[in-house]
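Input:
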Amino acid sequence: MTTAEQTPLLEIRGLRIEGRSEGRWSEIVKGIDLTLHRGEVLGLIGESGAGKSTVGLAAMGFTRDGCRISGGSIRFDGTDLRSAPIRERRRLRGNRIAYVAQSAAASFNPAHRLIDQYCEAPVQHGVMGRAAAMADAVDLYRRMRLPDPEDIGFRYPHQVSGGQLQRAMTAMAMSSRPDLIIFDEPTTALDVTTQIEVLAAIRDIVEQFDTAAIYITHDLAVVAQMADRIKVLLQGEEVEEADTETMLASPRQAYTKSLWAVRSHARPERPPAGPEETPVVSVRGVTAGYGEIPVLHDVSFDIHARRTVAVVGESGSGKSTTARVITGLLPPSAGEVLFNGTALPPSYRSRDKDQLRQAQMIYQMADTALNPKHRIREIIGRPVAFYLGLSGKRLTERVRELLSLIELEPDEFIDRLPSELSGGQKQRIGIARALAAEPQFIICDEVTSALDQLVAEGILTLLDRLQGELDLAYMFITHDLATVRAIADEVVVMKEGKVVEQGGKTEMFRPPHDPYTELLLSSVPEMDAHWLDRLLAERGEVPAGE
Amino acid sequence: MVARRLGLGVLTLFVISLLIFGAVELLPGDLAQEILGQSATEETVAAFRRELGLDLPAYQRYLAWLGGVVQGDFGTSLANGRPIADLIGVRLGNTLFLALYAAVIAVPLALMLGILAALYRNSLFDRAINVVTLTSISFPEFFVAYILIVYLSQTGFFPSIARIDPDAGLGEKLYRTFLPALTLTLVVTAHMMRMTRAAIINLLASPYIEMARLKGLSPARVILKHALPNALAPIINVVALNLAYLITGVVVVEVVFVYPGLGQLMVDSVSKRDITVVQAAALIFACAYVLLNLLADVLSTLSNPRLVHKR
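Output:
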């Protein structure tokens, strides 16, 4: 499709972008070249900090606050976006180049209805009148397979589900019929089952209008479905670029190979606990909810020492609510939680210090789970002092031990603030804080989903090692089945507050499955450029769910 | 939701009425003694106390007072025997007139300056506005008032005494009360302007503002259409607080410009031990606060689609 004589739609040469942190400018994009022809989809892939989004935004002549373009050129259809006056760039944005953001829920203005936001760009840029734009919105909502296309536009963003919002945002990007769309991780925040529908809809519409696209993601399997070509970035530099088939079949660079390799990691299931062994935690017939609305219905499962139980399901299936019941944050309306065979008081308020100590949590967002004003010494030291009553030299000694345990150099880290740590290091501190209480049982709530694959891999290996050394029982809440494969012994599948299937990992990943488990499993993107086509064909192209 | 807030408002007013009554009870001195003078015999003072109802226990007087107030009867002034409703009516009218006058200037001005400051943030213009408004709020009101008198009254532009004739035309009234209104404007603008600026700037880092920019919208449209509607709740609340201040906090300004408002009446009545008038004025001020805050709550609720349009 790439012909030499055709002028490219977008041509970026030697792009350098600097970011400002703590008063200094440092280069975050270090000379990227990028060529995109009409109707072509380029996948931009790399870990966080690789500069994917920065490059994507620069293709619109835009930099975030605190960033500046320091070198290179960006030509879009004959216009140099670096030297063009701001009015000229504004005329292109939302008109000939559009943007689809990672979180549609955050990127739609909560104060306006969807259709008003749809009409804004075409009306402001004089592409069409308001009446025409509204009619067009309904048409595109239909093409994006949104339910109730006539009326959905008249809702506010909070009245529409995440997957639908993401499709509405793609429709909005199409509103001025742009030549180029930047997709910035459009499905990262979605459940696997919803992701498929959004991917299929995006691919359809891009093909229908022959729009060129830059598809930014950290998920290789996703980009394989979407892109004609893939470019791999690492710390602001290009690693390699090739067409999708070649890239999947034979990545040349070591870094690319390492990205590919993560996917294949899996730990075998440990032998099951004997029937005579008392489970560390036993959830028995728990029903619970917020206010009048029940969220959990008769949930039961056991977790044994030295074993990991993965609780999987889509968002809203009750995974985190189950964790809240176990920790006593949400007293159940029926059922009970046993700890080593003894019933725990329903509310954490009536549990004694030892009961509280035995069950700890690690959170998804290490960023927000650590107090930004406390040093590592205090963050880890507090539970040590509180639960174990250590102080002074012995307290410091224990904190240092814990830091060594999570593979961080005590001298270097003990007096740092959370802002001086990387994402993976923050999560390690979260783990150390949980270990500080010397618990028997830890709930890991989506602990790797905010991390890059390689970093996540490190965290999973660490958790696995600690489990062996300290005889821990884990409850692993996740929506990512690759994580389940990597770490679980048993799997509990939840849907709408009920347990639909549970059992050993090996058995769970072997057919026949419960229909819902089957849907979940088949929705996980595979490293195969034709996976989505095959899956849609198998499912008869009927969008599932919703 | 609104009904619940309304109920809470009534409850607040009830508690305030108790506080006002209790506080006035604690005032030292005795009204009957004050009026009759030091030479009055004990019998005459006692008889006068009976006549005024001061001999009854406190709770009975409270209930009688509250009962009257609920029916719109504030009783009579202890000092001169005139019905309080008449006494206060004119003064309240004057106070509200001045407050409204100042608000009509100050609120649009503050919002406009706040929006412009957010639009041109960190520019020379932004800093200039901040310096000017902060300066004007940092001086005591009477100082601002005297400065204005020096520059605008002694030069002959506006009268420094704002005594208004009830029969005067609107134009005349506006002219005579211009200086007090301007003083109040200078005092309240800074709060509202800075809150508007801060509330808008606070939102500029949100993803939906970036989205608006990436749609190629003009900076003015990004601020007015995308940031402002989401910044309304804090702005409404600070505006309400300042409006309440315009009604209840203007005593000093009234005194400087000899303006016959409610605040001055209250101060006079305190010095005369005219407790029924003090109570009535205090209650009216409390009402203004509660009502304006209630209004602010309702408006901020209405400005949030999440609360208006349920899922």
